[in-house]
Design brief:
By secondary structure, the chain is of the alpha/beta class. 41% of the residues lie in helices and 20% in strands.
Length: 155
Protein backbone atom coordinates (compact mmCIF):
# COMPACT_ATOMS: atom_id res chain seq x y z
CA UNK A 1 0.00 0.00 0.00
CA UNK A 2 1.19 3.49 -0.87
CA UNK A 3 1.26 5.95 2.05
CA UNK A 4 0.77 9.67 1.50
CA UNK A 5 1.01 12.35 4.16
CA UNK A 6 -1.46 15.05 3.18
CA UNK A 7 -0.98 18.54 4.64
CA UNK A 8 -4.09 20.71 4.45
CA UNK A 9 -5.35 23.98 5.90
CA UNK A 10 -9.05 23.74 5.06
CA UNK A 11 -11.57 20.93 4.40
CA UNK A 12 -11.06 18.95 1.22
CA UNK A 13 -13.52 19.70 -1.55
CA UNK A 14 -14.95 16.83 -3.65
CA UNK A 15 -12.62 17.86 -6.50
CA UNK A 16 -9.60 17.70 -4.17
CA UNK A 17 -10.65 14.28 -2.86
CA UNK A 18 -11.09 12.94 -6.39
CA UNK A 19 -7.71 14.32 -7.40
CA UNK A 20 -5.63 12.98 -4.50
CA UNK A 21 -7.35 9.59 -4.50
CA UNK A 22 -6.66 9.04 -8.20
CA UNK A 23 -3.03 10.23 -8.31
CA UNK A 24 -1.76 6.65 -8.14
CA UNK A 25 -4.25 4.97 -10.45
CA UNK A 26 -5.67 1.75 -9.05
CA UNK A 27 -3.05 1.40 -6.30
CA UNK A 28 -4.43 1.41 -2.77
CA UNK A 29 -3.45 4.55 -0.88
CA UNK A 30 -3.34 5.22 2.82
CA UNK A 31 -3.58 8.86 3.87
CA UNK A 32 -2.25 10.51 6.99
CA UNK A 33 -3.83 13.95 7.07
CA UNK A 34 -2.23 16.81 8.96
CA UNK A 35 -4.56 19.77 9.44
CA UNK A 36 -3.20 23.07 10.69
CA UNK A 37 -5.81 25.51 11.97
CA UNK A 38 -5.62 28.88 10.32
CA UNK A 39 -4.41 31.41 12.82
CA UNK A 40 -3.59 35.01 13.37
CA UNK A 41 0.11 34.48 12.54
CA UNK A 42 -0.49 34.47 8.78
CA UNK A 43 -3.53 36.75 8.49
CA UNK A 44 -1.68 39.54 6.65
CA UNK A 45 -0.13 37.11 4.15
CA UNK A 46 -3.54 35.52 3.49
CA UNK A 47 -5.06 38.95 2.88
CA UNK A 48 -2.28 39.82 0.41
CA UNK A 49 -2.84 36.50 -1.37
CA UNK A 50 -6.58 37.19 -1.58
CA UNK A 51 -5.95 40.63 -3.08
CA UNK A 52 -3.46 39.15 -5.58
CA UNK A 53 -6.12 36.64 -6.66
CA UNK A 54 -8.71 39.40 -7.04
CA UNK A 55 -10.74 38.10 -4.11
CA UNK A 56 -11.20 41.40 -2.31
CA UNK A 57 -14.22 40.27 -0.22
CA UNK A 58 -12.12 37.33 1.07
CA UNK A 59 -9.33 39.71 2.09
CA UNK A 60 -11.79 41.81 4.07
CA UNK A 61 -13.19 38.72 5.85
CA UNK A 62 -9.73 37.56 7.01
CA UNK A 63 -10.28 39.55 10.22
CA UNK A 64 -13.40 37.51 11.00
CA UNK A 65 -11.63 34.12 11.07
CA UNK A 66 -11.28 32.36 14.43
CA UNK A 67 -7.81 32.21 15.89
CA UNK A 68 -5.97 30.43 18.69
CA UNK A 69 -8.16 28.03 20.67
CA UNK A 70 -11.24 29.24 18.78
CA UNK A 71 -9.75 27.88 15.54
CA UNK A 72 -9.39 24.34 16.91
CA UNK A 73 -13.11 23.45 16.74
CA UNK A 74 -13.52 24.38 13.06
CA UNK A 75 -10.22 22.64 12.28
CA UNK A 76 -11.41 19.42 13.94
CA UNK A 77 -14.63 19.53 11.91
CA UNK A 78 -12.67 20.19 8.71
CA UNK A 79 -10.34 17.28 9.48
CA UNK A 80 -13.20 14.88 10.20
CA UNK A 81 -15.01 15.95 7.01
CA UNK A 82 -11.83 15.38 4.99
CA UNK A 83 -11.14 11.96 6.54
CA UNK A 84 -14.71 10.79 5.83
CA UNK A 85 -14.45 11.97 2.22
CA UNK A 86 -11.15 10.12 1.68
CA UNK A 87 -12.56 6.94 3.25
CA UNK A 88 -15.68 7.18 1.08
CA UNK A 89 -13.39 6.94 -1.96
CA UNK A 90 -11.98 3.65 -0.69
CA UNK A 91 -8.78 4.82 0.93
CA UNK A 92 -7.73 4.49 4.51
CA UNK A 93 -7.30 7.78 6.30
CA UNK A 94 -6.23 8.93 9.74
CA UNK A 95 -5.36 12.43 10.79
CA UNK A 96 -4.55 14.94 13.44
CA UNK A 97 -4.56 18.64 14.14
CA UNK A 98 -1.12 20.26 14.06
CA UNK A 99 -0.71 23.51 15.90
CA UNK A 100 2.97 24.01 16.65
CA UNK A 101 5.88 23.51 14.27
CA UNK A 102 4.01 21.83 11.39
CA UNK A 103 7.16 20.93 9.49
CA UNK A 104 8.73 19.25 12.51
CA UNK A 105 5.51 17.26 12.95
CA UNK A 106 5.52 16.42 9.24
CA UNK A 107 9.05 15.05 9.43
CA UNK A 108 8.18 12.93 12.47
CA UNK A 109 5.03 11.53 10.83
CA UNK A 110 6.92 10.69 7.61
CA UNK A 111 9.65 8.90 9.55
CA UNK A 112 7.31 7.00 11.89
CA UNK A 113 4.89 5.94 9.16
CA UNK A 114 7.44 5.17 6.46
CA UNK A 115 5.43 7.42 4.13
CA UNK A 116 6.18 7.31 0.42
CA UNK A 117 5.35 10.95 -0.31
CA UNK A 118 4.03 14.21 1.05
CA UNK A 119 1.22 16.10 -0.65
CA UNK A 120 0.80 19.74 0.34
CA UNK A 121 -2.68 20.85 -0.66
CA UNK A 122 -3.23 24.55 0.08
CA UNK A 123 -4.57 27.71 -1.44
CA UNK A 124 -1.98 29.72 -3.37
CA UNK A 125 0.30 31.70 -1.06
CA UNK A 126 2.11 34.03 -3.44
CA UNK A 127 4.27 35.86 -0.92
CA UNK A 128 5.45 32.69 0.82
CA UNK A 129 5.97 30.85 -2.47
CA UNK A 130 7.95 33.72 -3.96
CA UNK A 131 10.38 33.55 -1.05
CA UNK A 132 10.24 29.72 -0.89
CA UNK A 133 8.82 29.86 2.64
CA UNK A 134 5.67 27.86 1.87
CA UNK A 135 5.17 24.38 3.38
CA UNK A 136 6.08 22.50 0.21
CA UNK A 137 9.33 24.37 -0.43
CA UNK A 138 10.48 24.01 3.17
CA UNK A 139 9.36 20.37 3.41
CA UNK A 140 11.44 19.37 0.38
CA UNK A 141 14.56 20.08 2.42
CA UNK A 142 13.35 18.32 5.53
CA UNK A 143 11.41 15.09 4.98
CA UNK A 144 13.49 12.90 2.66
CA UNK A 145 10.58 11.80 0.43
CA UNK A 146 9.04 13.42 -2.67
CA UNK A 147 6.87 16.45 -1.93
CA UNK A 148 4.03 17.35 -4.29
CA UNK A 149 2.52 20.84 -4.13
CA UNK A 150 -1.12 21.07 -5.23
CA UNK A 151 -3.52 23.99 -5.11
CA UNK A 152 -6.79 23.36 -3.28
CA UNK A 153 -10.07 24.04 -5.02
CA UNK A 154 -12.76 26.36 -3.69
CA UNK A 155 -16.36 25.30 -3.54
Amino acid sequence: MFTSVLMIEKPLTPVDVDFVTTLHGDDKVSFIVLMQPRGDQDRLLRAIDDVALGEIPEAIREGDEPEGDDARGPAEKALEHSLKALRAKGGTAVGQIVEDHPLDKLKTVVEESGADEVIVLTAPHFVEEFFHRDWASRARHKVGVPVLKLFAHNE
